[in-house]
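Narrative summary of target 7.
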Amino acid sequence: MSQEPIIEITDLSKVYGAGDIRVVALDHIRLKIYPGEFLAIMGPSGSGKSTLMNILGCLDRPTSGTYILAGEDVSNLNRGQLAIIRNRRLGFIFQSYNLLARTTAIENVMLPMAYDRKDHRSNGDKQKAAMASLELVGLKDRAHHVPNQLSGGQQQRVAIARALINQPALIMADEPTGNLDTHSSLEIMNLLGELNRQGRTIVMVTHDQEIAHYTKRIIFIRDGKIESDRQNGQIPVMRREVQHESL
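Modeled conformation, tokenized:
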């Protein structure tokens, strides 16, 4: 594991409101995440885990403290600068997939490239990259299907392929199995585990202890503070063979 953290936050706080309605969502958190980690953030409702995820994903800024991402201080960047960071350095996986309904799988995967003005590859090259990303998640044969022609598990695989398309430094997964049945959830976690074994760094928010068990490290947040931070051993795999087509 590299000695240089991909994420380093120091005395990070997030406060909403003021006076009598002042709410401290995060309270002077310190955290380091290293390349190649697979980490779960857990905590009860209102604990601050979603706020932390939003800041780590450059969707929000802290009230105070510093956030260093891949060597760059992103704590005080404006919205436009944060959008560039999100597109080039981060890949997002959401509970609700966030796919465009009338757009094919391959077109959904290509979207992050379309938003990058510095990506001057031809459309053909972008399609090849998107197809390779779909192949990585076992959906090459579903490239021209729209979301309503895909199962929930397949839609989440498209979302994972989209998250990988720009070779991000970090993958952010927000309740990635929240809308899936048990079998599809375990297959998605196996896929994320395999991506991590290939060297991807993954930070995931989940409320599900069983899902968190598939990560290497679990952070538990309560009342805006890190209550525990523990290593989780080896990532388990499903006891039966994963069949991508069954999703």
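The radius of gyration is 18 Å.
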